[in-house]
Amino acid sequence: MLMVQGGDPTLFFEWNVTYGTIAPLGVPVKGILINGQFPGPNLNSTTNNNIVVNVFNNLDEPFLVTWDGVQHRKNSWQDGVLGTNCPIPPGKNYTYKFQVKDQIGSYMYYPVTAMHKAVGGFGGLRVNSRLLIPVPYADPADDYTLLVGDFFNKGHTSLKKILDSGRNLGRCDGVHLNGKVAKGDGKDEPLFTMEAGKTYKYRICNTGIKTSLNVRFQGHTMKLVEMEGSHTMQNDYDSLDVHVGQCFSVLVTANQEPRDYYVVASTRFTRREVTATGIIRYKNGKGAASSELPPPPVGWAWSLNQFRTFRWNLTSNAARPNPQGSYKYGSINITRTIKLANTAQRVDGKLRYALNGASYVEPTTPLKLAEYYGVADKVFKYDTIPDEPPSDNTKVTLAPIVLNMTHRNFVEIIFENPETAIQSYHLSGYSFFAVGMDIGKWSPEKRMNYNLLDAVSRHTIQVFPNSWSAILLTFDNCGMWNLRSEIWDRHYLGQQLYASVISPNRSLKDEYNLPEGVLTCGIVQGMPRPPPFSS
């Protein structure tokens, strides 16, 4: 439903979250459906739309959904993570209200509670450009969402028990494309249809739990046009590595003989490669898809080199009618450098994942509520981890981790990965410039090789084994923001933290008041609401 009141249009959605049987790999699993759908419905919006989503939790356990990549300017109240929001209790509902302010692009939503994400509750979220703002490519014949991900047949309850007992999840059972896998028996329904001679947009997101995937279209190339909210230089690719939590938009032209073709997704950096396919059907085409699939790339050096080909399109407009490249991030002085190193450790015999010697533990009171109600000291301490890894990074403390960020500081964050497993990190509330990535350890002279001109502005970044990645951003969005591993077993077992950005003015110009109807829990439940900001 759409409503316009003098300003930006408001879109209304009502979501019923239920259990239901799903079987993406052919094995029945208790899944999580939104309005009866797995994956959930596409949330389709346009720049500056106000979005109202009333979520009814019909599960028998708490549930909470986050909007991965939506920046929620001045409004971390609606981010939908456990550091900002109480989960929706069973049988209750919560209405999210947020604006996709000054954003365009391809995103996703998914649950952050327990291991729910492993069995559904996720879907595509798109923010279209306003009609008045030119897009750097012709309108496609259609706009498709392709959600790819690894899948575990054990179900979310068993996966949670494995992690709670301190064990490793192991490898996935398979891969799905929009919740399905083609059998290749000639009876598969197509995921998408194309008409010869026309060009189509595919928004490809990795909604999985832990596995990087390579995506390719049999017989067709992909022209990369957008990545997590930024228009990119339009290079052609035979295949793209899509790491967990990442979204790419590509154009595919139907320029081959009219018949069926496979879209292929296969696991990367796993001992045993798993491949899944879906059918793309030409209208009026004749003939089944060839069983000869395009081969995947080998090794992660290939993937690192692909990352280096991604460039920001400096001349195209993004959400506003001015070129993306008018923001000269490369000439701003860095005021703080934070280096985060991930480790896998055993604490009391159980597996935990840590950053700089601390493994995050979820308090019963959301951090943002504790801060707003003036009881933060009863829930967490600020700055409990150093800005660089301790010399002995084998000791692990279990506690909430909150970094106190100075409003409007320009910060460099380096992710160092001393492990043999690939990492993928996401920062809520922001996009950042992914300026550098290389093997080995980071040192200050590595800045000489940063891309300070046209690095893509995005919200998720991978870190290869025994490598580092560097990002730059201005912490100008007040709120409590989650920096997390998108690899969900790591996230669940502590590889995350929060950045608190407080307005020195306590002003509505910088941050919205606590919304009416917000759920309260923990020690703030029943406390009187603090006085609101007045101006």
Structural category: mainly beta
The general outline is: globular
Helix content range of the residues, please? under 10%
CATH superfamily of the largest domain: Cupredoxins -  blue copper proteins
Q: Rg, please?
A: 22 Å
CATH topology of the largest domain: Immunoglobulin-like
The name of the CATH architecture of the largest domain is Sandwich
InterPro entries: Cu-oxidase-like_N (IPR011707), Cu-oxidase_2nd (IPR001117), Cu-oxidase_C (IPR011706), Cu-oxidase_fam (IPR045087), Cupredoxin (IPR008972)
Domain Plastocyanin-like: 16-130, 142-284, 365-505
Pfam family, one: Cu-oxidase_3
Organism: Gossypium mustelinum
Walk me through what this model shows.
This protein is mainly beta and 535 residues long. It has 3 domains: 10-128, Cupredoxins -  blue copper proteins (Immunoglobulin-like); 142-309, Immunoglobulin-like; 329-501, Immunoglobulin-like. The chain is 5% helix and 37% strand. It is built from 4 helices and 34 strands. It has helices at 156-164, 301-308, 367-372, 488-492; strands at 2-3, 10-22, 29-34, 43-46, 50-57, 65-68, 93-99, 105-111, 123-128, 143-151, 174-177, 192-194, 199-206, 213-217, 222-227, 230-231, 236-237, 239-242, 247-253, 260-267, 275-282, 336-347, 350-355, 358-360, 397-399, 402-405, 410-417, 423-427, 432-439, 457-458, 460-463, 467-474, 479-485, 496-501. The strands form 7 sheets. Strands 10, 11, 13, 15, 16, 17 and 19 form a 7-stranded mixed beta sheet that branches. The protein has a 6-stranded mixed beta sheet with strand order 23-22-27-32-29-30. Strands 1, 2, 3, 5 and 7 form a 5-stranded mixed beta sheet that branches. A hairpin with a 7-residue loop joins strand 20 and strand 21. The longest helix is centred in the first third of the chain and has 9 residues, at 156-164. The mean pLDDT is 96.
